[in-house]
From TrEMBL:
This is Uncharacterized protein.
Amino acid sequence: MLQIIQATCTNGELILNEKLSSELEGKTIQIMILEPSESTQPIDSQESKIQQFLARVNNYSFPLPADYKFNREEIYDR
């Protein structure tokens, strides 16, 4: 799942601008922090760059079956 949510950092904690899906309850999630640019670029340009980045991520992403197990021993010929 890929979801973009804005948040504000207050006293070292992230305060989300919207609630997370109940599907995420009890799960560990990864967070990517994209700091807004201080430049004079319009917001549309910044959002476009984010969308381009996420499109590149999607090009190199693929779903794994729920029962997938990584066999580390096979890689290291153990």
